[in-house]
Amino acid sequence: MASKKDMRRADLALPYVDPPKSSSDADISSTMSSTLPMAAMFTRNRMIGWLSFVFSLQSWLGESPDQKKNASTPAYMSVFMSLMALIVTYFPLFLPPQAPGGTAAAASPSS
C-alpha cells in the first residue's frame, strides 16, 4: 500500500512570477482598427467598412488604462475614422457619380 506522506519539500517550491511585458509588443486590434478604415475607403468595399467599425468599436470599449496612457491617438478617433469610411462607401448611393462625357448637348457641338 502506498504511503500517505507528502514527499515534496516546501522550502524548494518557487512561486510563479509573470514575465514582464516588453514595450515592443504591438496591439493587433489597434493596428487593425486604424488600417481597415483606410482600406475600406480606397476599395469602397462596404464589408471592410463594417468590419473596420466593429474592430474600432471593440478596441475602444476594451482598451485598458495602460493602453490609454501609451496610445499615440485616442481610440475614439479610430471609431470616427471607421464611421467616415462607412460614409465614403455608402456615398455613391445618395449622390451617384456623373456619367463620363457629361450631357448629350455638350457632347455634340453645333456648327
Automatic annotation (TrEMBL):
<feature type="region of interest" description="Disordered">
    <location>
        <begin position="1"/>
        <end position="30"/>
    </location>
</feature>
<dbReference type="GO" id="GO:0044183">
    <property type="term" value="F:protein folding chaperone"/>
</dbReference>
<keyword id="KW-0472">Membrane</keyword>
<dbReference type="Pfam" id="PF03669">
    <property type="entry name" value="ASTER"/>
</dbReference>
<feature type="transmembrane region" description="Helical">
    <location>
        <begin position="75"/>
        <end position="95"/>
    </location>
</feature>
<dbReference type="GO" id="GO:0045048">
    <property type="term" value="P:protein insertion into ER membrane"/>
</dbReference>
<dbReference type="GO" id="GO:0005789">
    <property type="term" value="C:endoplasmic reticulum membrane"/>
</dbReference>
<protein>
    <recommendedName>
        <fullName>Protein Asterix</fullName>
    </recommendedName>
</protein>
<keyword id="KW-0812">Transmembrane</keyword>
<keyword id="KW-1133">Transmembrane helix</keyword>
<feature type="compositionally biased region" description="Basic and acidic residues">
    <location>
        <begin position="1"/>
        <end position="11"/>
    </location>
</feature>
<dbReference type="InterPro" id="IPR005351">
    <property type="entry name" value="ASTER"/>
</dbReference>
